[in-house]
TrEMBL record:
It comes from Brachypodium distachyon. Pfam families: B_lectin, PAN_2, Pkinase, S_locus_glycop. It is found in: Cell membrane. Residues 1-28 form the signal peptide. This is Receptor-like serine/threonine-protein kinase. InterPro entries: Bulb-type_lectin_dom, Bulb-type_lectin_dom_sf, Kinase-like_dom_sf, Pan_app, Prot_kinase_dom, Protein_kinase_ATP_BS, S_locus_glycoprot_dom, Ser/Thr_kinase_AS.
Length: 805
């Protein structure tokens, strides 16, 4: 999968697209504010289903239950968005002390002027303000989502506010702050899990050491991400805020203040129609998102850390994090089980895993021959807190670990590294890492070829050798006959048994690659056909993609589309079997370090082949198929470098009686058409836009990125548009491909790319027209510069962003 949020340009492209193309706001939808009040008074407490509604109906306050499964019977008082369809709670009062019955509870003003929550006449929660005044206060819910306690007679005198008691959500107008006088920090703390708002393991706060940055922490102790010190216009690790990368007229303004009283960072939204929030998620990421009404969903446009697996302690002890970007999953190591299965199901894996069998490391156990053993995990990013010792060999390193009952793992690469007690932050890697770790488990957890009664088994084995060999021979003859019965028929998809795929892949021993939804292994059919077996891992992460791929690609055949040979579905064991592509994915050869240099002719043929494949999907299948995720990672190359469109996990079928379909946003940031972001109905032109963005990368051999330190005039799509207008397309290629470049083809493909990324879908060509243009059968006119490129150019010329302070 491509990395999300690869540059400041892509982040702000998403924001601008949402705001420029936002459909009419959600005003007027949801709960009515007629006859509702925004003010809480001692004489009229909230109980049962009574609520406060802010003046324009934007927010509501009352009793609620988290909608996640497993939260039944627990009630809280909170504030949520009142007019959207998805329950989105922004503040919780009694987050650590749920109540069982809102009808017998009340949320009211106490005699001392504080807000309190009473349950069975006992105080469950209180605002505990020292400024409150006896009998003279009211609480008002504002349209900012802030609940403020005021004097009845002096509404400007705020005695307490929920904005100073943040839970997990940072709303526009509020601030992350550190009071230099009192040392009190106004910080965000994640929910424990999706069904429990109690404080979780992850925190966002201003750096308590006094530096001009804010930080993300695990367990209030371990910093795993920092913004970097404020430069006067932005944070170094948030280039999205720098003037060079910020669009003009965006509705976001940012402010940073450091004075003698406090230090804080804040943001505002100047367009009140835009619903925006920042959340520290249960997975430890700081995520900024906007509400897209037509999609009925929150769309994330910024997150840190960018990869979920980079969150410290995300998977807890004795667990491994797999996947990339926002798509990741935790899994217990062999010999371990989930410590709290219910929390895992609700999105909180921080409790990690526990041993199935205690370590057998006492001297008594050693005498009995129950010495612990190790199993190997390869291609990993090693856990934190390793201790190095002197060891001259891997055997000496292993012995050093066995000699200490607290040692849980070791690694040896010339230096012996030992881990004591719990293992944290073990990660799968897909970047060619060769790190290996050996995990310690009780001997009973692994098969053992040794036993102190070897002589008894020797006699038994000797006596059964002839019989055993006969049984084994018979088994393999039957097995071979069964496997040989598997053959490919044109136009059919084989339903494999899991045991068959184990046999054909040699028990999944040769891995070809790994992605967000699982790993791919090499296998060989009886007729010597090589195949690629995609083993989907994690039911929640891959089930939808599995169904989509089987139902979609299993019915289509084209030279430029990957062929699905078969599938397996046995309970949670779900696998897809594809034809084998020996040259891997296009992105590896464009910018992944491949030793194979793609000539201009090869690149042009790849671009044309992909266009033919998409034309078949859009125009020639029984149902129109919109791929929805065209990018170099999903273009595979066979032995002759013929491209094949792959990965149909996000594909959408569209009947021939319809021209467009309304669906939830899907795809990869950087390749998304504007209509995806706005929530409009989608047509095949969404694939055309993604194809155009990919063409820029095929031409340049580089990603379409704009880093904080790079001037916008070097952003390649902008360069292409400029050079087309000035007649300088020959300047676009590097020395690797310029030798055999055909300037006519170069100009033609540059025009196609610019036409593909036009803002209006009606201005984009169809894939069939693109094939005709690339084949030289149809001439193409000079395209206008796409509007978002013009916006970027204007943003660079206007390098001052007055709202930054």
């Amino acid at each position: 999968m491509a990395k999300w949020f690869s540059s400041g340009f892509l982040h702000l492209l998403l924001v601008v697209a949402v705001l420029l193309l936002l459909v009419p706001s959600s005003e007027g939808k949801g709960s009515s504010s007629i006859n509702a009040t925004d003010t809480l008074r001692a004489s009229r407490p909230l109980s049962g289903d009574r609520r406060l509604i802010s003046r324009r109906g934007k927010f509501a306050l009352g009793f609620f239950q988290p909608q996640a499964q497993g939260s039944t019977g627990k009630w809280y008082v909170g504030i949520w968005y009142n007019k959207i369809s998805v329950q989105t709670v922004v503040w919780v009062a009694n987050r650590e002390k749920p109540i069982s019955d809102p009808a017998s509870s009340s949320f009211t003003i106490s005699d001392d002027g504080n807000i309190i929550l009473l349950h069975s006449k006992s105080i469950v929660w209180s605002s505990n303000s020292t400024k409150a005044a006896f009998g003279s206060t009211v609480a008002v819910l504002l349209d900012t989502g802030n609940l403020v306690v005021r004097h009845k007679s002096n509404t400007s005198n705020v005695l307490w506010q929920s904005f100073d008691d943040i839970t997990d959500t940072w709303l526009p107008g509020n601030k992350l702050s550190l009071n230099k006088v009192t040392g009190v920090s106004n910080r965000m703390v994640s929910w424990k899990n999706h069904g429990d708002p109690a404080p979780g393991m992850f925190t966002v706060e201003m750096d308590p050491d006094g530096s001009n940055q804010y930080i993300l922490l695990w367990n209030s102790s371990q910093v795993y991400w920092a913004s970097g010190n404020w430069t006067g216009t932005s944070f170094p690790n948030m280039p999205e805020l720098s003037p060079a990368n910020t669009y003009p007229n965006t509705p976001y303004t940012y402010g940073f203040v450091n004075n003698s009283q406090e230090i804080y960072f804040t943001y505002n939204v100047t367009d009140d129609r835009v619903l925006s929030r920042n959340v520290i998620s249960v997975s430890g990421q700081s995520q900024s998102s906007v509400w897209v009404e037509t999609a009925q969903a929150w769309v994330i446009y910024f997150s840190q850390p960018k990869a979920n697996c980079d969150v410290y302690g995300l998977c807890g002890a004795y667990s491994k994090c797999s996947g990339s970007g926002l798509s990741s999953s935790c899994s217990c190591l062999k010999g371990f089980s989930e410590s709290d299965p219910n929390s895992w199901n609700l999105g909180d894996q921080t409790a990690g895993c526990r041993r199935n069998v205690p370590l057998q490391c006492s001297r008594k156990d050693l005498v009995k021959g129950k010495q612990d053993r190790f199993y190997t995990i390869t291609s990993v990013k090693l856990p934190h807190k390793a201790q190095s010792i002197q060891a001259t060999s891997i055997q000496n390193c292993q012995t050093a670990c066995l000699d200490n009952c607290s040692c849980s793992a070791y690694s040896y690469n010339g230096t012996c590294s030992l881990w004591y007690a719990e293992l944290l932050n073990l990660q799968d890697t897909v970047d060619g890492s060769v790190d290996v770790i050996y995990i310690r488990v009780a001997a009973s957890e692994l098969p053992d070829s040794r036993t102190k009664k070897w002589w008894i088994f020797g006699i038994i084995i000797g006596g059964l050798a002839i019989l055993g060999s006969g049984v084994i021979t018979l088994y393999f003859l039957c097995r071979k006959r069964q496997i040989n019965g598997i053959h490919l028929a044109e136009g059919s998809v084989i339903t494999f048994k899991y045991s068959d795929l184990q046999f054909l892949t040699k028990n999944f021993s040769e891995i070809l690659g790994a992605g967000a939804f699982g790993s791919v292994f090499k296998g060989v059919l009886p007729d010597t056909t090589t195949m690629a077996v995609k083993k989907l891992e994690g039911l929640r992460q891959g089930e939808k993609q599995f169904r989509a791929e089987v139902s979609t690609i299993g019915t289509i055949h084209h030279i430029n589309l990957i062929r699905l040979l078969g599938f397996c579905s046995e309970g949670t064991k779900r696998l897809l079997v594809y034809e084998y592509m020996p040259n891997g994915s296009l992105d590896y050869h464009l910018f992944g370090g491949s030793s194979l240099s793609l000539s201009w002719n090869t690149r042009y043929q790849i671009a044309t082949g992909v266009a033919r494949g998409l034309t078949y999907l859009h125009e020639e299948c029984r149902d129109c198929i919109i791929h929805c995720d065209i990018k170099p990672q999903n273009i595979l190359l066979d032995a002759s470098l013929i491209p094949k469109v792959a990965d149909f996990g996000m594909a959408k079928l569209l009947g021939r009686d319809f021209s467009r379909v309304l669906t939830s946003m899907r795809g990869t940031i950087g390749y998304l058409a504007p209509e995806w972001i706005s929530g409009e109905a989608i047509t095949t032109k969404a694939d055309v836009f993604s194809y155009g963005m990919m063409l820029f990368e095929i031409i340049s051999g580089k990603r379409n990125t704009l880093h904080g330190g790079t001037s916008a005039d070097k952003f390649f799509p902008l360069v292409v548009a400029r050079e087309l207008a000035e007649g300088g397309v020959h300047k676009l290629l590097d020395s690797e491909v310029i030798i055999d470049v055909h300037l006519g083809e170069l100009e033609r493909i540059c025009k196609v790319a610019c036409w593909c990324v036009q803002d209006s879908e009606n201005s984009r060509p169809t894939m069939g027209e693109i094939v005709q243009i690339l084949e030289g059968l149809v001439d193409v006119e000079m395209p206008p510069t796409p509007r978002y490129l013009q916006v970027l150019a204007e943003g660079v010329k206007s390098s001052q962003v007055s709202s930054l302070g």
